Amino acid sequence: MKEPLELKLPSSYQSKLDVIDSDTNWIKEISKDGKLEKLIEEVLLNNWNFKKAATNVQRAAANAKISASKKYPKFSGGLGGARTERSFLGFPFGGDQESSEARPRVSKSLFSSYGMSLDMNWEIDLWGRMRTGQEALIAEFEASSSELRGFKSSLAGQTAKIWFALLGAKEQEELAKRSLASFKKTQRMLRDAFDAGNGAASQIRLAASDVEVAVALLEQRKAQVRAAARQLEILLGRYPGG
């Protein structure tokens, strides 16, 4: 009897997920004529929620930048000057001297002085408060940027989905038009044959039924085109047509 095989399993598993940046480069690959790309640009330009998300990213980036600047010392300087006049009584020197028999000699001199100052202000992050706050702001910026990219991809995907649905509905409408024209042609041929005595009334009734079905199908395809067009207009921020 063989002994059971013992397997040593780790108590926990850890794996790293690959980070995939959600971009919209696929638009150019599927939009050869550039129409879809222009539609997506219009959607992003007119969508208020996307504008709000973009504003949040800009605000978070500004907050993170301001927080990063607080780690470095701040310098401030100044330059000033002054000019004063002093009077000396009874001294035989000075620029301007005034004297008389009634008054003693007064000497006047002008003095100019200049000064320059340089100050430094630096808040030491002793307990890591500034670093923690900056990390939180950077995390907020990264989260808002990721949300903006995801929102952009979502809007691009919705636009592409509705656009291709509209193209498909138009193709189905064109096919329904051709089918209706074919059934009407068959109906005319059968009626002409019946009038010439070479056909049956049942065939004419069947052809008329086919025409009615084709007419109803064409109206259905037209309604699908209008519905897809309205969805696209709403997404583009335009006023929906009739």
Quick overview:
This protein is of the alpha+beta class and 242 residues long. The protein has helices at residues 26-30, 35-46, 48-69, 129-195, 201-236, and strands spanning 74-89, 96-98, 106-121. The model is unreliable at 15-22 (pLDDT under 50).
Descriptive key words:
alpha+beta; Outer membrane efflux proteins (OEP); 5 helices; 242 residues; 2 domains; 59% helix; 3-stranded antiparallel sheet
Descriptive account of the structure:
- The chain has 242 residues and is α+β, with helices and mostly antiparallel strands.
- The chain folds into two domains: 152 residues, Outer membrane efflux proteins (OEP); 48 residues, no CATH class.
- 59% of the residues lie in helices and 14% in strands.
- It has a three-stranded antiparallel beta sheet with strand order 1-3-2, with no helix packed on it.
- A hairpin with a 7-residue loop joins strand 2 and strand 3.
- The longest helix has 67 residues.
- It is rod-shaped.
- About 3% of the residues have low confidence.
